[in-house]
Task: structure prediction
Amino acid sequence: MERTKILVTGGAGYIGSHAVVELYQAGYQPVIVDDFSNSQESVMAGLRAILGVSVPLHRIDCNDVEAMRAVFAEEGSLRGVIHFAAYKAVGESIVKPLEYYQNNVGSLLTLLQVMREFGVESLVFSSSCTVYGVPDALPVTEQTPTKKANSPYGATKQMCEDILQDVAAAPAVALRAILLRYFNPIGAHDSALIGELPLGVPQNLIPYVTQTAAGIREKLTINGDTYDTPDGTNIRDYIHVVDLAKAHVVAVRRLLEGKAAAAVETFNVGTGHGNSVLEVVKAFEHATGQRLNYTIGPPRAGDVPAIYADVTKASTELGFTTTTSLEDSLASAWKWQQSLNR
Result:
């Protein structure tokens, strides 16, 4: 039986590669588009080792409309798209706002144009809890008002969501989209064959933690301890990357089976509770037996004090819940770091 083809932009990236595994294991045929500007080619070997097959790859920039047309034409029978391809570092976006707007908004516009030309109607969009800005109340629900974003990265996600709402509402356009607002993905595949592969100095907490434990970094600097939280450090909702990947399979199936309740649906994808940075450090030490050398530094521009998800909607409407604990997620991240060390 022929597998249903799903295009995965940014499919060699951290979340994308794990989604590719879950898609294939659920019976779909993922097709990757990636220019490796923020990922490494070794990921493809990891995918091949896990799945036992080579996943089709198109090495192109999603902003290149002619190259994207060529992919759609060559593949011929794409049924849907998961759009991961985006720059994603809050701090970097403050330094390079123009690049973030060009890449994140531009790639979505290009993708939507080509999808329309080739009659592909189903899209799962990689959004973010940054669209909520600094929320007035926690946990945030899908009805929590979006505020001015704290960073250009967050602003690009807000813009992309607005674009999808407007395009789907146009009478001559057939588009069904599910917006998945991620919280903080962590961890790695159980095989330790794929995981988070930051280029250069990590922008995210967990790879910095594991690299510090491995001796690659001298110490972990925690960005601020004077926030209005119980221990003064930022609180985030940390979701295992495989759990997050599985949410994409659920969303794809919902779109292809015509079960979406609206042209555009939005779901928070998290665990439903928050942990502070210091709690994560202690959980890592407990899960792995590794002591971390850490210090407190100044707050980082663009960071909100605390945010975590209300996941009631994802649970009731998608039937999706997470299954991996914080300590198990951190243990998998350490296992991945050890495999990289070898």
